[in-house]
Design goal:
7 helices, mainly beta, three-stranded antiparallel beta sheet, 21 strands, 14-stranded mixed beta sheet
Length: 424
């Protein structure tokens, strides 16, 4: 990888490769010197011991700010070859996403090489890479405790073992899934009879039974942080009590039932070094002062253009995974639930007017103002039915009390279909 463009380029690393979050920095203050963002190829390539269709992602950064996204690179030829003479072709499934045409698994001791040719003829080649033996997650468990900052919460740990004590550099990813129960759910929802657009017809709504499940939902979120552990420090073939995730007791994801799938990669020294450097970028308080060019070296190089810039690492690793479930009641029996998600305030209910004098309460113009009417709020999918109002409604009120959508309809925050792996 060419490192000459300078520190501004390495700030870009955090945004397009690691997925980690940093504070937003004005784009105009980070103009790269001597190259265009279109010159940068980002390669996310990893094959494992899982017998599956492997995936390679190719992209280019599109901006230099905390909300940056990466643009997929289409039309490339992607091939992985092995030292045993096997060749695995990849085909494009989505823009920049390439999937092997047949399932295969990386075999221990066999070297693999990644070859990429872009639509413009630019070619890239990785150094040969191989995987080590398979490690084991012996146990995954959760316990309630105080964090180093004194926060009460749930810590999730893994215990691991490895048949080769010299190959024990671990990287972890996790995927958490949690149950959402809408606190203000009711069995009824609004149906608009008239939106008031027809001359002489007032806006009106009625209540009907809900058409789908909207009380209980599920959401799945993948980790973005870089979690590493070097088992050599333990001077043993076992790694015990490795902290993967801490969830404060005010985190809404643990409110009901929570599951985490932990994936453990046994990495080569080269891959471990790359991800360690990448993690150091994302954890630096001031990446522009502390990170020097050339620190982050991958194992992929341009073949026919010395000026081309490629960022990424072709990794061959063994992976194992294990899942854990627990309920909030397991650790906080009888205690209040965490606050609901984000800035949602489910205790706030109000009764907006229909702007239908036959159903609204008294509405003196000098007292009520002209806020959004109920039908408009429904059309914008901002609210849900919560409770009937008094008859007649109060001053400046409509016939129904409403709640924020997320409080009455869980599909605002997740899917109403339970994942295949879900257990109660």
């Amino acid at each position: 990888m060419k490192a000459s463009p300078g520190i501004a380029f390495f700030a870009l690393v955090l945004l397009v490769f690691s997925g980690s979050c940093i504070d937003e920095v004005p784009v105009e203050s980070l103009e790269p010197v001597g190259f265009s963002l279109d010159d940068v190829l980002v390669v996310d390539a990893r094959i494992t011991n899982e017998n599956k269709q492997q995936r390679v992602l190719l992209s280019r950064p599109t901006a230099l700010s905390a909300d940056s996204s990466a643009a997929g690179v289409p039309g490339a030829s992607v091939i992985i070859s092995s030292s045993q003479g096997s060749t695995f072709q990849f085909e494009e499934s989505d823009s920049g996403s390439y999937v092997s045409t047949q399932p295969f698994a990386a075999i221990e001791g066999v070297e693999y090489t990644l070859e990429i040719e872009l639509a413009d003829g630019q070619q890239y080649l990785s150094a040969p890479a191989s995987r080590g033996p398979e490690s084991t997650i012996d146990r995954i468990y959760a316990q309630r405790e105080l964090s180093n900052l004194g926060v009460d919460g749930i810590s999730i740990y893994v215990d691991s073992s490895n048949p080769d004590p010299q190959a024990d550099r671990y990287r972890y990813e996790y995927e958490e899934t949690y149950k959402i129960i809408a606190p203000n759910w009711t069995a009824s929802e609004f149906e608009i009879i008239s939106d008031g657009s027809e001359i002489g017809v007032f806006p009106d709504v009625r209540l009907v039974p809900r058409a789908q499940e909207e009380r209980v939902c599920y959401n799945t979120v993948a980790s973005t942080e870089i979690l590493l552990s070097n088992g050599l420090e333990a001077e043993t073939e076992e790694l015990r009590g490795n902290l993967i995730r801490f969830l404060g007791n005010d985190n809404p994801v643990i409110s009901h039932r929570y599951s985490i799938l932990v994936r453990q990669y046994l990495q080569s020294p080269e891959a471990y070094s790359f991800y360690t450097s990448l993690r150091n970028f994302s954890s630096s308080d001031n990446v522009f002062n502390q990170i020097q060019p050339g620190l982050l070296e991958g194992n992929i190089q341009a073949v026919n253009d010395a000026e081309a810039i490629v960022l990424g690492f072709f990794e061959v690793a063994s992976v194992t995974e294990k899942r854990l479930f627990f309920n909030y009641e397991d650790f906080y029996p009888g205690e209040p639930l965490p606050p609901y998600f984000d800035t949602v305030n489910c205790e706030r209910i109000f009764a907006p007017r229909l702007y239908n004098p036959e159903r609204d309460g008294p509405s003196p113009l000098d007292q009520c103002g002209a806020p959004q009417g109920l039908t408009e709020l429904i059309e914008l999918e901002l609210v849900e039915y919560y409770l009937d109002n008094t008859v007649p409604p109060g001053l400046c009120q409509g016939p129904y009390f409403i709640t924020q959508r997320a409080c009455g309809d869980c599909t605002a925050l997740g899917s109403n279909i339970a994942p295949d792996f879900w257990e109660e």
